[in-house]
Amino acid sequence: MDKLKKTSWEKIISLLQQLYSIGQQIQEYHITLQSSVYTLVSLFHSQFGQFIDREDIIDSIQQLDFETPQLYNMGRNLQSEFAFTFNQKYILKVVSGTQYRYFKNIFHQYYFKIIANKNCLLAKTFGIYKLKDRDNNSYFVLMENLFYEHKVQNSQIISIYDLKGAQSSRITKNFYEQFQQQQLLMQNNAQTIPLLKGKDEDFKKIRFFEDFSIDKKLDLMNQIKQESDILAEANTMDYSLMIITGHINQCLQGKRLFKLNNNVGIIIGIIDYYQEYNSTKKLENKFKTWFGMHKPDQQISCVDSDTYRKRFQIYFQQFLQD
């Protein structure tokens, strides 16, 4: 995947501002803007335009934050692949050409799902773009930032869980000790609480949903099932359910925002749904199961979309249907 340089991000800002400054009467599916060096292609521009606030996006992308906060790093080097708008409301995420073409092909499945279901857990995508210069092409998407609902309320993020339903390498060193320390600090109303980050094996060690009512658990499980069924139909794998908790001053019950005791809010969303189970992923699966790790499909992350869906659902059933 090509990494975008800072100069390219700056050009993206300029081209996106031009793109969304054009009048609302645009009817074309695909829009192309050209400068002396760069060409920006915006796919499905009119459809995305039906559920975005153009003025808000223009204001938000006036400046990008190139220094990825440690908060968002779940163990991978994300700095060169992400840029946050300065107000933290949107993310520009670099994707590969393969992911770009795949999402282009499944766009209508995604789009009509978003339109039909206001409670959709999928983190919203607001644009798909290709940036061309004299030497190469770069691809990126404009997404909502799931953290933003906490950010606007001046809250403190307490924990982040990135959950795929897999077992292999899905564990954090000394997680439970850190969790217990954090719980003690919260009980003592400490002003500063260290951020806790966990994955699938870590999440099993805590009773995260114990304060959820039976109805709330069932609603969330049904929503997870619906979303993962749609993603499986589109041959998608490697997505995650991200759970974010934080102290908040006010919390409105909503599609992804839940309120627990002591002003702790929870945001839940499905992210990273741009990966098709293609020939490359099939080879990766064979390598990991036969020639390398010798671990069955229920343990490794790279599996076919139907296996991924079933495993994803079974993983959350153990917490939400007890």
From TrEMBL:
Domain PIPK: 1-320
Segment forming the signal sequence: none
Molecular function GO terms recorded: 1-phosphatidylinositol-4-phosphate 5-kinase activity; ATP binding
Top-level division of the source organism's lineage: Eukaryota
Keyword annotations of the record: ATP-binding, Kinase, Nucleotide-binding, Transferase
Presence of keyword Hydrolase: no
Keyword Manganese: no
Pfam family, one: PIP5K
GO cellular component: plasma membrane
Record-given protein name: PIPK domain-containing protein
Originating organism: Paramecium sonneborni
